[in-house]
Amino acid sequence: MRLRPDDDIYRARLLFLGPRGFTLPFHLPYVAYPLFAVVLATIMFLRFALTGTVDLFPAIEIALSIVLTSLILRQVSPDRPVRAVLRTAMSDWKKDRVDEGSGIRMTVKVRIREALHDTPR
What we know:
By secondary structure, this protein is mostly helical. It has one domain (8-117). 53% of the residues lie in helices and 3% in strands. It contains 5 helices and 2 strands. It has helices at 8-11, 32-51, 59-74, 82-101, 114-117, and strands at residues 15-16, 28-29. It has a two-stranded antiparallel ribbon. Helix 2 (32-51) crosses helix 3. The mean pLDDT is 78.
């Protein structure tokens, strides 16, 4: 027996099923479509900035966008929107980047007395 949650927001997933009379074979939340477009545009811009070329059909960029969108949407829930997931990812990435270069440096001055240095062993 499954227990239904009391809160309506947990039951409403806000899925786009497709146009009237034609259901799509996949069910994605509304937020997936603009997120995919933003991720695709970002990846295409980065490739153009690095290589200076644009493909007629960007298959690699589309595949990467699908994977990144699905990874982001795995973390999304009614309690945690996409904005919070992206903000957390960026703050974690910045924290990791800062920690890489800021290692603890210790300087020690060592003096060796002449008497200890010249003694035979």
